[in-house]
Design a protein that fits this description.
CATH class of the largest domain: Alpha Beta
Number of helices: 11
Strand content: 25-35%
Largest sheet: 9 strands, mixed
Oligomer: single chain
Number of domains: 2
Structural class: alpha/beta
Order of helices and strands: EEEHEHHHEHHEEHEEEEHHEEHH
Strand order of the largest sheet: 5-4-1-6-11-8-12-10-9
Number of strands: 13
Distance between the termini: 51 Å
Radius of gyration: 19 Å
Shape: globular
Helix content: 25-40%
CATH topology of the largest domain: Spore Coat Polysaccharide Biosynthesis Protein SpsA, Chain A
Length: 281
């Protein structure tokens, strides 16, 4: 199976930091956000990855490409640990790129992948969402896809005050943590929300999603909503992901994700924890 990573957004919530660099390249602790995403795909057994980019996203390509000058410097400086790490980034998968030429939403970005996936089911991992668990989220979705021969998406329970930020599903549980989805509502009000189960940034989609993306009408701002197209699928299942989900969509969530990962790091975690105790007192 192939994976598609949409990474074409302008990142306006992070200006001015994203004026000259993609939001997906902002570091979360010691790695760019999108590297975590690619690593999840690879850990799930996928090594053919298409990244949907846009104007000003060249640094994503550079990051996953080889850097002969840097490798030469690290080798001659005896920094072998760094050399091994850098070489692994460029060797982890076959990564391809295509540009979304206009900002027309997530659904339009997915349409850019039609030729690459070539009529097969495919995974989608949003380029600004990090998931963490002993079993990768995408791997679990692949298992559900195989079992039910259907599209599958990751979902999470969200606090009532955050419901209006997400697409929310209506469905019934068919096995522990797995729901057969009957409907989806994009960013409903609290009174209109059918549940507290929100769509998060991981999907396995059947190829007919491309037909449905052509059928749906543009929404607010002329954007094509992926949720509207998924509502037209014959069958779709949701999996309540039990691990951590970091939606790097706001500066606060981005800072929280970096802090969480730094605190868990054996080299800097203790020192950072002691520092936080001092400034909080």
């Amino acid at each position: 199976m192939k994976a598609v990573i949409p990474a074409a957004g302008l990142g306006t919530r992070f200006l001015p930091a994203t004026k000259a660099q993609p939001k997906e390249m902002l570091p979360v602790f010691n790695k760019p956000t999108i590297q975590y995403v690619v690593e999840e795909a690879v850990a799930s057994g996928i090594d053919d990855i298409l990244i949907i980019t846009g104007k000003g996203k060249r640094s994503i390509e550079d990051h996953f490409d080889r850097s002969f000058e840097l490798e030469f410097f690290l080798k001659n400086s005896g920094k072998i640990d760094h050399l091994v790490e850098i070489e692994a980034i460029s060797n982890m998968a076959d990564i391809y790129y295509v540009r979304q030429k206009e900002q027309k939403g997530l659904g339009d970005a997915i349409r850019c992948a039609k030729k690459h996936v070539d009529g097969d089911p495919f995974a989608v991992l949003l380029g600004d969402t990090i998931t963490q668990n002993s079993t990768p989220c995408t791997q679990r979705l692949l298992e559900i896809h195989e079992k039910y021969q259907s599209s599958a998406i990751a979902i999470e329970r969200v606090p009532r005050e955050k419901i209006e930020r997400y697409g929310i599903i209506k469905g019934h549980e068919v096995e522990k943590s797995v729901y057969h989805i009957e409907d989806m509502v994009e960013k409903p009000s609290l009174n209109e929300a059918p549940s507290d189960l929100a769509i998060t940034g991981r999907y396995i989609l059947q190829p007919e999603i491309f037909d449905h993306l052509e059928q749906v009408s543009p929404g607010v701002g002329g954007e094509i909503q992926l949720t509207d197209a998924m509502r037209l699928l014959d069958d779709i299942y949701g999996y309540v992901f039990p691990g951590r989900i970091y939606d790097i969509g706001t500066t606060v969530e981005w800072l929280k994700s970096s802090l969480d990962m730094a605190l868990e790091d054996p080299q800097v975690g203790h020192e950072l924890r002691e520092y936080l105790k001092k400034i909080i007192q």
